[in-house]
Amino acid sequence: MPPVRIAIDGLASDPIGPEARFYAAEELLRPLGLRAARTTPDALGAGDLYVGPSPEAVPEHVIRVRAGTPADASREKGDLGDLFAETFRQLAGRVEASVRQRDRLGRFLYAFHPEAPDPLARPVDAMRARLADALRERGVTVRDPEWDGKRWAVAVTHDLDALRTRRLASLVGDGLRGHLRRGLRRATGPDDRMRTARALAALSERNGISATFFAKAGASGREDVPTQPERHAGWFRQLREAGHEIGLHPSIQAATDSARLARERDRLAAALGERPTLVRSHFLRWTEPLTPEAYADAGFQADSTLGWADRSGFRRGTAHPFRLWDHRRQAPSRLWELPLAAMDTTLFVHRGLGDNEAADRLLRVLKSARQSGGLAVLLWHNCMDGDPAWWRRLRVLESVLTAARERGAAVLPLGRALALAQSRATRDPLRH
User: Fold this and answer.
1) Which of 65, 103, 219, 255, CA to CA, is 20 to 30 A from 144?
2) What is the reported pLDDT for 300?
């Protein structure tokens, strides 16, 4: 393989800095099975990122990156513009940070995005594809992503906001809100919260797949239902024995309260017999830098919060797992992100879609992830209010999973998807 280097021009006006640039390079190269290599200025010149077997590079094997140049503005052969700066802007959420508007839960919604991008667009994945083409032209072996032998993947996840109905409280609360009939049904009929949670597990098991369940272990606001995870320790054990994973679904305030988060983590750990390593915020609450810092400091390996509540799509521009950026330390975080692509409440509540429209939207999400060999993370809740439409909507999820497998997807729990993503860059580009 001929030696190749990625040479960065114009670093005197570097808009992001060397650490952010190297982080972006690593995130672009990892899904291709390559690593960025740090080299000394004596070997290649300050700022060069090198891919190849030796520190020598003839001019025709140099890929030019121009600091501060829009990634889509370059026209010269071999000049990719500043794709590292744009990758960093996307993955680090710089657009979100520049917008002050948030909803009542402190969330950044798609509706607040000043650029109004196509929510299914994946600009980071598009830049990775351009870089891969340039590397192939120069003789570098680039591997397509692989997910347990498949070219793309789907992860099925479930947020369990509660597993037990407090019947008297439900009757009183629904009555005060003018929903007496619903309150009577919830107070006297089958407890749909646990029944539908079991139905989610049964769906996975009859389809021969494993899912990731996020369980609550505390309540800290009116958006939370009081829960006692120790009551369900036996069922959690059954889930794990069936091959499923269980992560923490922190209460609404725990997303920004480290002490509360630690208590909830430990309470769920006591019910599980081990500490959870996966986390997703309740109501997708996410506040930079508090939330990712709290999750990383609490020992979680990966989060799957970063989707939009009001749109299906790829909020950080990629369908691939990536490391988050620690804004306070100005360095890569220990916490990985498995970006959320689609959620049932987005489809049926926020967007008001019918079953067929929701299925079509989900298939479009899957197609987008498939185009980049990525991962589509889907979220389906258990039923909280006895809505009979929930059972019909469960069939939407099952039909979409069937379609995904027919299109060649691996269906994986999040932990397995994370392990595969982390293992990709196993080759040292300096030592082929």
Assistant:
1) 65
2) 98
d(CA 348, CA 172): 26
Count the Cβ atoms, other than its own, within 10 Å of residue 57: 21
Would you call 176 exposed, middle or buried from its count of C-beta atoms within 10 A (0-12, 13-18, 19+)? Answer: exposed
With residue 85 as reference, give the H or E element that holds it.
helix 83-91
What pLDDT was estimated at residue 141? Answer: 84
Block residue for tokens 């309740």: 282
Average pLDDT over residues 388-402: 96
- 8-state DSSP, 156: E
Structure tokens at 281: 């915020």
Instruction: Determine the Cα angle at 331 with ends 334 and 125, to 5°.
Output: 80
At 375 the three-state DSSP class reads strand
**Per-residue tokens: 17:** 């800095």
Amino acid 361 reads R
Give yes or no for a contact between 354 and 407, defined as CB atoms under 8 angstroms apart.
Answer: no
The partner residues of 343 in beta bridges, in order of sequence, read: 379
State the average pLDDT over residues 381-389.
89
Strands (E), 19-137: 49-51, 62-66
Give the dihedral of Cα atoms 39, 44, 45, 47; nearest 10 deg: -40
Closest by CA to 124, choosing from 377, 321, 343, is 321
The alpha carbons of the chain give a radius of gyration, in whole angstroms, of 23
Helix (H, G, I), strand (E, B) or coil at 64: strand
Catalogue all structural domains in the chain, each as residue range(s) with its CATH number.
4-137 (no CATH), 152-422 (3.20.20.370)
**Percent of the chain whose pLDDT exceeds 70:** 84
pLDDT at 342 over 70: yes
Amino acid at 18: P
What distance, in Å, lies between the first and last C-alpha atoms of the chain?
9
